[in-house]
Design a protein that fits this description.
Elements: H1 14-27, E1 33-34, H2 46-57, H3 70-80, E2 93-96, H4 99-110, E3 116-121, H5 126-133, E4 137-142, H6 153-157, E5 164-170, H7 182-194, E6 198-202, E7 230-235, E8 248-251, H8 254-265, H9 273-283, H10 286-314, E9 320-321, E10 328-332, H11 344-355, E11 357-358, E12 360-361, E13 370-374, H12 379-393
Parallel strand pairs: 1-11, 3-4, 3-5, 5-6, 6-7
Antiparallel strand pairs: 2-8, 7-8, 9-10, 10-13, 12-13
Length: 394
Amino acid sequence: MQFSANISKLQPSATIAVSSLAKRLRAEGRDIIDLSAGEPDFDTPEWISQAAIEAIREGHTRYTPTPGMPELRKAIADFVRRPGGRDIDWNGVVVSSGAKQALFNACFALFGPGDDVLIGAPYWTSYPEIVQLARAEPVFVQGDEEQGFLLTPEVLDAAVTPATKGLLFSSPSNPTGVVYSLDELEAVARWARDRGIWLISDEIYRHIQFGPGREAPGILDLPSDALGPWVLIDGASKSFAMTGWRIGFSVSEPDVAAQLGALQSHITSNPSAPSQMAALAAYGNPERTVEAVAEMRAAFHRRRDLMVRLFQQRLPQLPFLEPQGAFYLFFNVEALFTEGRQTATDVCSWILQEAGVAVVPGEAFGAPAYARLSYATSDAQLEAAVDRIAALLG
């Protein structure tokens, strides 16, 4: 059977594949601890869910404007606005069916055949696939491993060509958990501005960070003159424990947003109306939302500290990057390579089959010496998973 060239290079999501295998083994009766999926284990705050229930009862079940309800777009613009920072025009907000669609909208509208898009590596597994669906070419750029793989102007200078049209990266990072400081972020932004390169900043984990303040630095914190053409990607999934509600958004200049909305009108049209009403409750009540997020962030911080301690004590042969945000531990598995296990995929398959612990091989993120686990689960599950891996390694 022959398929379109549009999907000729498309690869299935490795994180979903591992999670699906873990679920299949569990269905077969195996005791599996699944640390593969990037999903908070918390319930959506009750008052947010209740807003959607009330919205359904009140008849908010019809089409909305394609880029989202105006009141939600205004609430998002107010929520992302930084104190003393730039004014955000709500017409620059496009609400989508998840942050993944917001990213697809941006890449499909801004890039095409003959364009190169620099992608900071290690990267979220969908980045190169989305760029290739736009018929552009992903070009992977990796910073110094000792510095958490952070991009710098020097690293970017070595990769840029006349065909380079975009730069895509995340902070806090999935999969590494590293966070760009404001100075590091500004250096990257000015580099892109000076070359007229589109800067796409994925800030979906912005509120899950373990430094001072309630959020990690983002491009809207930068001086206006530091930014050239830009698009910010964010959403409710991670910070608000709303993965299944499928609400993401992009923020850009209004003329850019108009094009992103026009594209979306021919793909999905508007996101689910009840989900938008739930998101309106979240973004429209910032004090209450920030309090709920702070509780979840504190739990993630505690789990991060637990995993750092357990790996140092029980798995010293597996060095890792200490996460500064998100909820992932990215650890090096080269010490486990043998004649029969020569890749991270081999190692992760071995750990899943023999120890019953599901983690994602680093090949999915452009880092073949690493694996990623999610600590978005209970302390007891995390301790049990480390115990199992430690027992397997002897």
